[in-house]
Amino acid sequence: MNDHNNNIQLETAMTTTTMTMIQALRSAMDVMLERDDNVVVFGQDVGYFGGVFRCTEGLQTKYGTSRVFDAPISESGIVGVAVGMGAYGLRPVAEIQFADYVYPASDQIISEAARLRYRSAGEFTAPMTLRMPCGGGIYGGQTHSQSIEAMFTQVCGLRTVMPSNPYDAKGLLIASIENDDPVIFLEPKRLYNGPFDGHHDRPVTPWSKHPAAQVPDGYYTVPLDVAAITRPGKAVTILTYGTTVYVSQVAAEETGIDAEVIDLRSLWPLDLETIVNSVKKTGRCVIVHEATRTCGFGAELVALVQEHCFHYLEAPIERVTGWDTPYPHAQEWAYFPGPSRVGAALKRVMEV
Questions:
Q1: Is 144 one of the catalytic residues?
Q2: I need a surface site. Which of 14, 77, 156, 298 has the fewest CB within 10 A?
Q3: The architecture CATH gives domain 228-351
């Protein structure tokens, strides 16, 4: 069993600072820029402006325009340059301003970055990290709110990561930068400035009012491909990631059901061992994510659970997801899978 702080690699004992996820991500890039001269950070507005969400604020001033710099409005160009940098020894951290904008770079991600190691028989790799804000949280509508993780989890050669809290965000980003494979690093916008409280029917909390978490100031990693059990339980397993980790925890508390909540953290490769052990213990499974239902990553989780745990299941597997529709602007919270929907699913599996 992997608890939330298991398998953390700390370089030395260090002080901690209260950080939001944005600050934790910035700290990760700061640490790696200082630690490794081959690390470069670039993307639209990430240099002088510090990024639209201020994730890279101050880094160009500290490390100069050769290490932290702006890119043209060309996602295919950003990723193509990152692939070339990685192939020749650099470790680029490139930002796609919103995950919704990544589609023009699909060829560079899938045909180039993901296949470079295979195509070159290991002579070249693409050690690039592609950061992308994803999901709702800013009333951005259909072109600034998409959750597109399933597009990448089925691509051989890519790693896909989505943190749910500041501590994991920093540790996972450092681990991603150090990894020799291309990593799709998805950052839930709703969590950028503090842990989400799980309630879908409340207005967006002003960013200045969000709580934060204690994060080590220096170098540490959270291993890729390892899930975290954020809430132990014996009655039902909830598989989730990103923003809906908090939704799932609230739903379990409000229903009084002894649910075990697993934060996947790395969507692919997947920590199947932790999932299988939990479902075999509980006999029930609910899958929760913000992305659309049809062909969402939850469908793959359903397939894996029934393949490995079929004879242990006491009830059909439930999925709670976003609706199969473009993300609405004014009705963002009606789209978002909140605690009431998750709670209803928990009750259904417990009634069987």
A1: yes
A2: 156
A3: 3-Layer(aba) Sandwich (3.40)
